[in-house]
Amino acid sequence: MTSDEHGHGHGHAVSSDADRKLLGGALALIVGFMIAEVIVGFAAGSLALVTDAAHMLTDAIAIALALLAIRLAAKPPAGGFTYGFKRVEILSAQANGITLLLLAVYFVYEAVNRMIHPPEVKGALVLITGVVGIVVNLFATWLISKANRSSLNVEGAFQHILNDLFAFIATAIAGLIVLLTGFARADAIAALVVAALMLKAGISLVRDSGRIFLEAAPTAINPQALGAELCAVDGVVEIHDLHVWEITSGEPAASAHILVAEGLDCHQIRMRIEEVLAERHHLTHSTLQVDHATGGSHCSDAHGAVHRSITDAGRAPDPASPHH
């Protein structure tokens, strides 16, 4: 006996159309300012500005991929793609993370070279561009913050923009220091700060998207504890093949083979387990196979741990029973 419960929480609080408009507005801001920053960066001889511009390029790519992923994820399941294209957004998030990590390594190398051999830096241009960049990124961050950030795809784009905001703050401070003191190495130090922020965001995105690709359980759910909890449901004898994963970010799913005591109503016990999964763990998308323990439907090679009830009958011992 199987059950496939589709949750009601899969829809986004903000519609896909609204997400696209918000991301599109942020993309236009980022691309326009990025072009101007590249020109000013080379004119000022500032690695910090060029680093920021490169980071903004990854921002633009991140947002463009997010927009593409939203469109593809909305397509219904077809052919061999039984989940549709929901995981395209995870590919996008992982690409964003890897890009951030590679750029961070490159800019650390460049910044160290500039610490050793500091070039002339025009502090006034760096300061002005940094301040304008702060304003632009504040607005872009505000736009994306209104989109559906439960999506790892949108969250990836948001992290790009947010890190760029911090990077512009560091750049503006570096420009002010160069302008007031002539300390040119401040520009390279700002570039190192930007690289550190990129590393932090990149590691987080690669780790989180990697967990979904490897079908790890959501971080908020402990499968071992969940198995023990479900075995405590009255009538359950054993649970095996318990799997908990995420179809895509914010869309967890579970499946399990459940054995119940002979003579009990499998449907009632299945419904009770579904309630536990939904109410306590927000697992509204579950596929459960429920059989009687003596029905001969045990798996010969169960995947993962096997969870058993405290008694073979699947319920607490009855003190009045002649067997106790």
UniProtKB/TrEMBL annotation:
Localization (cell): Membrane
Transmembrane segments: 26-50, 56-74, 95-112, 124-144, 165-183, 189-206
Domain of life: Bacteria
InterPro entries: Cation_efflux, Cation_efflux_CTD, Cation_efflux_CTD_sf, Cation_efflux_TM, Cation_efflux_TMD_sf, CDF/SLC30A
Topology of the protein relative to the lipid bilayer: Multi-pass membrane protein
Residue intervals of the Cation efflux protein cytoplasmic domain: 227-292
All residue ranges annotated as the Cation efflux protein transmembrane domain in the record: 26-213
GO MF annotation terms: zinc ion transmembrane transporter activity
Example of a GO cellular component annotation carried by this entry: plasma membrane
Ribonucleoprotein keyword on record: no
Keyword vocabulary terms for this entry: Ion transport, Membrane, Transmembrane, Transmembrane helix, Transport
Keyword Transmembrane: yes
Family per similarity comment: Belongs to the cation diffusion facilitator (CDF) transporter (TC 2.A.4) family. SLC30A subfamily.
Name this polypeptide is given: Cobalt-zinc-cadmium efflux system protein
